């Protein structure tokens, strides 16, 4: 098995993200790896909507999304600190989740990405897209997918 020294763990509010975190905790401990937890506050979900009519709602949405992401990152970070694992966090905005994850992976020169996948298939996957699938197809480094 390869020695992983830099592991990236993208998280969102889903329970499957926390399953990926548990896998990352165990692997990082066994590999004496450094972990970076990343959360992406996605690009505007209201594309195509009259901006001026909903500007206050957009502002509130992004403020709440960022606050929630920061709290989640801090909570997860404490789990790694308790286990004596070197950990950093990153909050990325203004890009899609796929772009944000790939940017951070490239910047940090990570050896492995560990992330959750909801396992959507068919029409649901086509409509929602799949960040995990995008990462798998676009990322040149190993990706460990944790499924529900």
Give a structural overview.
Helix 2 (51-82) links the parallel strand 2 (34-41) and strand 3. The model has no long low-confidence stretch (mean pLDDT 85). It contains 5 helices and 5 strands, in the order E-H-E-H-E-H-E-H-H-E. The protein is globular and about 50 Å long. It has a single domain (6-147), classed as Rossmann fold (3-Layer(aba) Sandwich). It has helices at residues 15-31, 51-82, 97-108, 122-128, 131-138, and strands at 6-10, 34-41, 87-93, 112-117, 143-147. Helix 3 crosses helix 5. A 5-stranded parallel β-sheet has the order 3-2-1-4-5, sandwiched between helices. It is α/β, with parallel strands linked by helices and 148 residues long.
Task: Detail the topology: elements first, then pairings.
Blueprint: E1 6-10, H1 15-31, E2 34-41, H2 51-82, E3 87-93, H3 97-108, E4 112-117, H4 122-128, H5 131-138, E5 143-147
Parallel strand pairs: 1-2, 1-4, 2-3, 4-5
Helix pairs in contact: 3-5
Keywords: Cytoplasm
Organism: Acinetobacter gandensis
Family: Belongs to the universal stress protein A family.
Number of spatially distinct domains: 1
- The percentage helix is 40-55%
The averaged pLDDT comes out at 85
* Total number of beta strands: 5
Beta-strand proportion? 15-25%
Assigned CATH architecture: 3-Layer(aba) Sandwich
Judging from the principal axes of the Cα atoms, what is the shape? globular
> What is the CATH superfamily label?
HUPs
Instruction: Please state the CA-atom Rg, rounded to the nearest Å.
Output: 16 Å
Strand order of the largest sheet: 3-2-1-4-5
By CATH reckoning, the class would read: Alpha Beta
Largest sheet: 5 strands, parallel
Structural class: alpha/beta
Helix count?
5
Subcellular location: Cytoplasm
Domain UspA: 4-147
Main location: cytoplasm
Organism: Acinetobacter gandensis
């Amino acid at each position: 098995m390869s020695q992983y020294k830099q592991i990236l763990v993208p998280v969102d509010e889903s329970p499957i993200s926390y399953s990926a975190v548990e896998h990352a905790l165990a692997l990082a401990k066994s590999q004496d790896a450094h972990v970076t937890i990343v959360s992406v506050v996605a690009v505007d979900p209201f594309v195509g909507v009259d901006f001026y009519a909903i500007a206050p709602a957009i502002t509130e949405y992004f403020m709440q999304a960022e606050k929630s992401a920061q709290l989640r990152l801090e909570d997860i970070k404490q789990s790694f600190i308790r286990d004596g694992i070197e950990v950093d966090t990153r909050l990325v905005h203004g890009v899609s989740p796929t772009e944000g994850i790939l940017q951070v992976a490239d910047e940090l020169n990570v050896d492995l990405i560990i992330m959750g996948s909801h396992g959507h298939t068919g029409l649901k996957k086509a409509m929602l897209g799949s960040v995990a699938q995008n990462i798998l197809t676009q990322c040149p480094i190993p990706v460990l997918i944790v499924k529900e």
